[in-house]
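Quick one: structure for this chain?
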Amino acid sequence: MIITISRQAATNGGLIGRIVAERLGLHVFDRELVDEVARRMQVDPHIVLQFDETSCGQVQSLLWDWRAGVNEETYARYLRQALTRIAAEDQAVVIGRGATFVLHCSNCLHVRIVAPISLRVEIYRSFFDVTEHEAEKRIRLEDREKAAFVRRLFNGDINDPENYDLVVNLAGLTPEMAMELIIQAAKQRVAAQLTVEPKATLKQHVEVMTRHRRPVRPEVVERHRVK
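Got it. Here's what it folds into:
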């Protein structure tokens, strides 16, 4: 079972992911993933942190390339290797770092955690003594940095809901409810053993439409019966 957690800033997505991992008995990779990449690159983790999802820009990447011989392209290659190894072990929750865009397997559940900006501002201010304006400014900056990270390294759109199996909006769900949804979805995903191709659930859609008397062309039903 692999669960990837993509999260907007100030949604407690990292904490939710850690608790989900604990309850399912899975390893968790958040900052731990940075340490794993650093180990593979044989460099100090603080160097790798400069390329993390809310840190690196083009100028900073060039600076570290000059200072430490490490650049974003190298980091991306080792990050992919680390994520592939984690997926091979098949027992982990991976938080952020574009894992959604690297890991594709029948036992992978990709989750996106979102919330209204007003809620996120208040969550942020419960930890940091800043004004609403400053909190919103920092949150939006972090969101932009994460989106840019995924776009640069994986050519992906972090905000496209089609990249995820489950989008959890905390506007009407408590953190506990969100955790339970993720846990149940992950268990059912593993039990279903669906393939990762886009039309993997088409047969089930046809079956449920037929069962509930929604008009389905006879040739469509017959085609799926043959399969």
